[in-house]
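LAB NOTEBOOK - FOLDING QUEUE
OPERATOR: T.R.
BATCH SIZE: 2
PURPOSE: Compare the predicted structure-token outputs for two unrelated chains run back to back under identical settings.
PRIORITY: normal
REVIEWER: second-year student, initials M.K.

ITEM 1
FIELD SEQUENCE / FIELD STRUCTURE:
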Amino acid sequence: MSEDETLAPKTAQETDKPSPWLIPPADRLGFIVGFTLLTLVGNVLFGFLFRMIAPILPPSIPLGQGGMGAALFGGVPHPLSSLVIGLLDGLILGLGQGILLSRYGPDLLRWASLTAIGSALLQVSFSLVCLGLRTPPALLPPLLAGTLTLLIGAMQWQILRHYVRRSSLWFALYPIAFFLKYPLISGILALIGLLKGLPVTTQMQTREIVTAYAGSLIFRGLIPAAGLCAFHRSFRASMDVDPVPVE
């Protein structure tokens, strides 16, 4: 090799090598913030649409005192309602996630569709199990709901496995995020309790808002976004060829 070839500047193809990470380090902060904000927007949109369709859905089915559904819905949603709620919620969640994630490979519509299917399976399964037990123990509904979040991860894994290494770790992310949100919310509420200068009514309203939104932002936004940033691209995906599954 001649001296001129050694000193020659590298081409754009040689210098602009793809990042080994699914989300390049330079993009991570913006990705996590955007992912979490889109989750918040999705929650607000779902709440608005749910109030519109709630009157035409089958009524909730009352349970015994131990059912978590009794506290949230006055009973567990009818399985048909659970199907509609799950599809709507999952579609909104998947679209919000996919808008950002599609920049790094996964197809937006396929990601949103599979997320909607996973969410519907989660909601229907939760309703059927609780209805089958009639009076589930107090701790069973949250444990069941957290475990069933595996279904959302399993559906999204069908796409993610084509792009990242060790994609099977994605199965554990949603259950971990679901259960981790409880101590985090408790810490936030404890901080709110220290704000003695606020009127009692304001403190109660703030607590309700935190309980309603903070848990979802942590469970469906912040932790999944951080998890996606931790994945390495598969070798084939990094080479910009048709990706193949990588376990």
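ITEM 2
FIELD SEQUENCE / FIELD STRUCTURE:
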Amino acid sequence: MLIALSALSFLGGLVTAAQAGPVHTATAPDHLVSLGRNTAPALQQALDALVTGSSATETTAAGYGPNAEAKPTLLLFLFKRPAGEPPKARLEEVGTEITAGTKKMAGTTVSDPTPVDPGPLGGSAECWTVHSQTNIVVFCVWASNGLVGAVEEPSTDAEKTGGVMRAVRSEIEKVG
């Protein structure tokens, strides 16, 4: 499940030109889209390691789904960024990093990005399908003013995962 995430620390580290608008914030709750937070220590350690080194002012990583040592069914990553970065430019940089990161993993390929509707909270959003030797996941990233977020789930359907991303955003993201 952690396929696309080896390149994740870049999400919090990229800085681009200014954009106006209210700042977006989010937190990782105990329950998300009807899934409980997976509190397995090994999972949380792996997720924390993925966001370590980010230059974001705050990072959060959480898995949702079965508890104990079971694989989570949904991963969530949040990176608080300086307000004023244009979302579309952020996504283009993220896409470059996802592609570069997956090229380093033997037997892993990544699709071209699929633009998806970011939903009523605005910003920009794209999804990538990542194939490894053992898994296929869709990794959707959104960027809004002051926030970059990502969800990953086992799937082959970017539009479906885009819908999950919009549902996640509606539950956790606040504007202003």
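REVIEWER COMMENT (ITEM 2): The helical segments are 41-51, 87-103, 158-172.
FOLLOW-UP: none requested
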